[in-house]
Amino acid sequence: MQFRSDNYGPAHPKVMEAVVAANSGYDVSYGADAPMERVTALVREIFGAPEAAVYLVATGTAANVLALGTLTQPWQTVFCTPHAHIAVDECNAPEFFTGGAKLTLVGEADKMSAEGLREVMAPVENRGVHGAQRGPVSITNTTELGRCYSVDEVAAIAKVAHGFDQPLYMDGARLGNAVAALGCSPADLTTRAGVDAVSIGGTKNGCLGVEAVVFFDPAKAWEFELRRKRGAHLFSKHRFLAAQMEAYLLDGLWLETAAEANARCARLAEGLDTVPGAEFLHRPEANAAFVSLPRETHRRLRAGGGHYYLWDADDAELAQDGGPLLARMVCDWSLPESEIDRFVALARG
Amino acid sequence: MQFRSDNYGPAHPKVMEAVVAANSGYDVSYGADAPMERVTALVREIFGAPEAAVYLVATGTAANVLALGTLTQPWQTVFCTPHAHIAVDECNAPEFFTGGAKLTLVGEADKMSAEGLREVMAPVENRGVHGAQRGPVSITNTTELGRCYSVDEVAAIAKVAHGFDQPLYMDGARLGNAVAALGCSPADLTTRAGVDAVSIGGTKNGCLGVEAVVFFDPAKAWEFELRRKRGAHLFSKHRFLAAQMEAYLLDGLWLETAAEANARCARLAEGLDTVPGAEFLHRPEANAAFVSLPRETHRRLRAGGGHYYLWDADDAELAQDGGPLLARMVCDWSLPESEIDRFVALARG
Amino acid sequence: MQFRSDNYGPAHPKVMEAVVAANSGYDVSYGADAPMERVTALVREIFGAPEAAVYLVATGTAANVLALGTLTQPWQTVFCTPHAHIAVDECNAPEFFTGGAKLTLVGEADKMSAEGLREVMAPVENRGVHGAQRGPVSITNTTELGRCYSVDEVAAIAKVAHGFDQPLYMDGARLGNAVAALGCSPADLTTRAGVDAVSIGGTKNGCLGVEAVVFFDPAKAWEFELRRKRGAHLFSKHRFLAAQMEAYLLDGLWLETAAEANARCARLAEGLDTVPGAEFLHRPEANAAFVSLPRETHRRLRAGGGHYYLWDADDAELAQDGGPLLARMVCDWSLPESEIDRFVALARG
Amino acid sequence: MQFRSDNYGPAHPKVMEAVVAANSGYDVSYGADAPMERVTALVREIFGAPEAAVYLVATGTAANVLALGTLTQPWQTVFCTPHAHIAVDECNAPEFFTGGAKLTLVGEADKMSAEGLREVMAPVENRGVHGAQRGPVSITNTTELGRCYSVDEVAAIAKVAHGFDQPLYMDGARLGNAVAALGCSPADLTTRAGVDAVSIGGTKNGCLGVEAVVFFDPAKAWEFELRRKRGAHLFSKHRFLAAQMEAYLLDGLWLETAAEANARCARLAEGLDTVPGAEFLHRPEANAAFVSLPRETHRRLRAGGGHYYLWDADDAELAQDGGPLLARMVCDWSLPESEIDRFVALARG
């Protein structure tokens, strides 16, 4: 009963088959391989962006920091939420790859509003060289707390960013989950909503380790290539990244796996509704549930083999008396429904 | 007839099988997986280093620059040769990951001597804070021109480095080829020769994309972990790196594939001995041959499907009249002997 | 009637005389000059720190970022307040000089409490390599809003920082004003309270441009020297920095000028008490007053030649109708009392 | 008898008077002072560059690295000579301020030729993202060995740099000495010769500590301002920098002091011609002589109070037997002729 993270799960069989199939004979190294050409074509079509520059890296952090490094000057500040992966989960990689830019936090948790963004951006840079200058806006969709920005919300945020002459980057580590949950098209949620660059997460949703970075305007494409190489993120046997991404995007596999993960989480949430004392931080919108449970329930789940992280608490606290504790439960596409049902039954006691 | 680079070839079937086998159910992310424990044990045994800290990354550049970043202060200079991969092939990644350290070039080409190193290191740092300070020594084995540092040569270089209180790092992108060519043990060439940290290249010699970084003294292990994460090089589905490396090291597979690649290159060299006008830059010692050929011979090889890089020249020069041109020909473990023989026959005309 | 900043004022005649006196014949460059030896001796005596390493730079930002760069690792986060100069007034210089460390904000404004610090520091670093690691604590005394940390407050903060094995740095751009206001000794407020490194601001309080950086533990002295040179902050004609600092510290001149500036501000505050509608953000404790005034009063002051900054507002807003606006008024040691009285009279209308 | 460096000497009385005169009442901080406006006008006139952006910093290293940081991308390499101050005397400040760019050495010593530059620049960047990319060219005039680039030499180098779409920066730490020696106009040697940015050294030639950075094309002016602040090199009491530079440039004082320093060195050289065993590395062209002398002569000079640096040797070597040793002798504008004569007499024995 594994709900720790969607990066605990396996790769999808179709993705693994593609990797095995790519392992035949010789192919050009460093990104000039044949599968990569097909990946670029797929991305351009899916996102309605015929000029888009498309690149592959192996980790979500690499995607974020190389994209932001390309969009940000060292004397600027990036606007993101307090729960943003770039703010709390990347060990200062954004500062490193931007050459020392700052992060300015907008909102209280995992989502920002257009209005909240405007209030924070407006006063920046009004005293000449003294403070950090306005830089890009970065939002994560789905968010780190498993919520979605709707097409309209994204468009409103893009408008604010562009009003300050700054680009909007979308951390799409779980982009498939957002698209699947919203029922929109990938292009609606990005290109048409005014997103300037996006990452397409593969690792958490069916791949071994691959993320695409997409710049809808290719003006900075060459700079990105130099930054990727200088960041040691250019693969020599790049075909193994491309093969994964091709299989992942082909025929909408990425949206299928995302929809499955989301459905698993919905099933989990329905089950948890029946658990005494369970209270959601907010109703799950994609593949992650944040739910508060009595300590006794946590102890029973732990004892019975339920794996998930407590949020803002150590497992050591479970041994102590006290009130309910918040947990994060993430469902990946491969999670058997029976495991969910067993988990819920265990929670109910 | 593919001699462009050993990173053009496929992964070894045993490595690929291990990756497929790892793709089952859930495993802990970010390096705490079970295969990684076994990799660490294997490396410690093979290198006779029971305390060694062992880490995996996906590219050779990442291995080099994260290792050197950990060993180097930003105000120091790293001593390497003019042909060192870190000097000419990493787009300033060493400068980036060290926070702005310098590279000081020793020797004329791909190898340094202990005496040559001493002459360059001695005058550094004799004027207080003004110049760059002495930093680590970095050698590549086999070198970028396909030669080996013997155990004695490494030990002599280590002695000079340590005499200046600096560590010795060995870029082992082709470490297996060196060990196989020298007929020594991995421990002889590293731990016992005074090497402080080494990378074990997997990508060019049978893997999809994985390199190990080994610190024989674990004092800087935690710093390395932070640097790896901050460099965006920590894989969430790390088990796929570990599975590759485990299969690669198990039962000496890495030395088998390296020996095969070296043998292919020896066969190629013997064949080239019979080609009119062929002159070796130096006799090949591992899996790469640097050989000068008449332009007419190059044209015939190109026309017949022979793939390799001209060294210090563009293919455009082949269309012009002129003297012989130097080529690099690299053999990977998977290269069929028949392809070599066909290539040689074509070269002989 | 100049209240814009204490960096608008002139140098003290004794400081200028020392600079002129230093301009005779030859002296050793790069910090090995005779006046610097005397400066070091003076600082060690004044701060009761016989081992202290003492360095001079020309700007307050340089003092802060070179000191913090020496104390902070790139993967750490520095704890400071939202109004800290390092957070809002140094254009990402701290991020640049630390190699990409983060700033984590403690408290709501210009001061942190020991308890508030503990609450923010405690949860940092509880998830291994993923987040920024705990780094130094930085407080400014007097603060950016003109308040003082008492000896007890500093000691309590130092205790928290040390409890997490982190050093405490004090930005002393206006250290003299704090010491003068508190009536303590410089050693009480720093060495004995547990401060690990401090800057002694000269520029705002009687010098042309010089700040001292003091490490009470000299373990990192050589690293600081390398960082200063690499930051391009080592003066060749260093004697002109040393001459300023010597005159400034000699016979307590720095505390005299600070006391004068504080007294000017107290006189200003007393005067403002009589101005209709004047409301202090908090009672001035040193040489800066933050006071809210009706727009009409601001307009009258502006028209009559009163110079000061609106806080969080542009002068353009004065032309519009609306409520009172907050202003910052800073008094330097050279400010004539008559100017203050004239200013207050003008404010009273 | 002080020949150690031109940074051992005092400031010119006119410069010091200007500093004293600037110390009156209040002035705007951070570079918006009245003297700075006059400095900008002076520079534009002297260099025939009506659009030039002009900035002041306090050290020569700051001028170099902030200028190069503005002109260089982190993945590029700067072309300079092996003796360049940026290569050997700035403790990796160029790497730090460029974000990790490399330096590629051209020529054997202190001067590069246009042809030599072309040969080194041409092969750079011919393998895509793998190596460092071509960056700016940096020359020092007068050079670190006291020689001049003529107007024609500069123009030829500029042509090569521009042919590769790269700018030419001139490190003018001793620009006055070059202009005075060559008898050309400042505009001839810079603007009209194709120099894109230049520093005007004040510190070594009559100031306390000030250097100007001039961009003839102001396109990067704002970026420079942000970099200066972020580098902690923006002075709050900037008027004291501006006052120095104004007095220094006014009525050609900087060329007068430079001519005096050059004349002192010529007198020294003439004297050394009569010293047995004296051999010049090359005939002095400006204010520095590099001369080889028998050890016995060095010992006599040291014993008699002659101060200068041995070049590539420690003073400790003087105690040993051996051949002649090379010395650097630098004359500053304030050096009394009688001291030179006394020194020469001592050398003659």
Notes on the structure:
4 copies of one chain form a homotetramer. Chain A contains 14 helices and 11 strands. In chain A, helix 7 (151-163) links the parallel strand 4 and strand 5 (168-171). In chain A, the strands form 2 sheets. In chain A, strands 1-7-6-5-4-2-3 form a 7-stranded mixed sheet, sandwiched between helices. By secondary structure, chain A is α/β, with parallel strands linked by helices. The first copy, chain A, has helices at 13-22, 34-46, 60-71, 85-88, 93-97, 114-121, 151-163, 175-182, 186-189, 221-230, 239-249, 253-273, 295-303, 337-348, and strands spanning 53-57, 76-80, 102-105, 133-140, 168-171, 197-201, 211-215, 279-280, 288-293, 309-310, 325-330. The two termini of chain A are 16 Å apart. Chain A is globular. The first copy, chain A, folds into 2 domains: 13-251, Type I PLP-dependent aspartate aminotransferase-like (Major domain) (Aspartate Aminotransferase, domain 2, 3-Layer(aba) Sandwich); 254-348, Aspartate Aminotransferase, domain 1 (Alpha-Beta Complex). At the A-B interface, helix 1, helix 3, helix 5 and helix 10 of A face helix 1, helix 3, helix 5 and helix 10 of B.
Identify the notable features of this structure and list them briefly.
14 helices; 349 residues; homotetramer; four-stranded antiparallel sheet; Aspartate Aminotransferase, domain 2; Aspartate Aminotransferase, domain 1; globular
How do the strands line up in the largest sheet of chain A?
A: 1-7-6-5-4-2-3
Q: Would you state the CATH class of the largest domain in chain A? A: Alpha Beta
Spatial separation of the terminal alpha carbons of chain A: 16 Å
Count helical runs of chain A. 14
Oligomeric state of the chains? homotetramer
Strand content of chain A: 5-15%
List unreliable stretches of 5+ residues of chain A.
none
Q: Using only CA atoms, what is the Rg of chain A?
A: 21 Å
Q: Hey, which two chains have the biggest interface?
A: A-B, 49 and 49 residues
What percentage of residues of chain A falls in helices of 4 or more residues? 40-55%
Helix and strand succession of chain A?
HHEHEHHEHEHEHHEEHHHEEHEEH
Mean pLDDT of chain A: 96
The CATH architecture designation of the largest domain in chain A is: 3-Layer(aba) Sandwich
- In CATH, what is the homologous superfamily of the largest domain in chain A? Type I PLP-dependent aspartate aminotransferase-like (Major domain)
* Structure summary, number of beta strands of chain A: 11
How many structural domains are formed by the residues of chain A?
Answer: 2
Principal-axis shape of chain A equals globular
Structural class of chain A: alpha/beta
CATH level-3 fold name of the largest domain in chain A: Aspartate Aminotransferase, domain 2
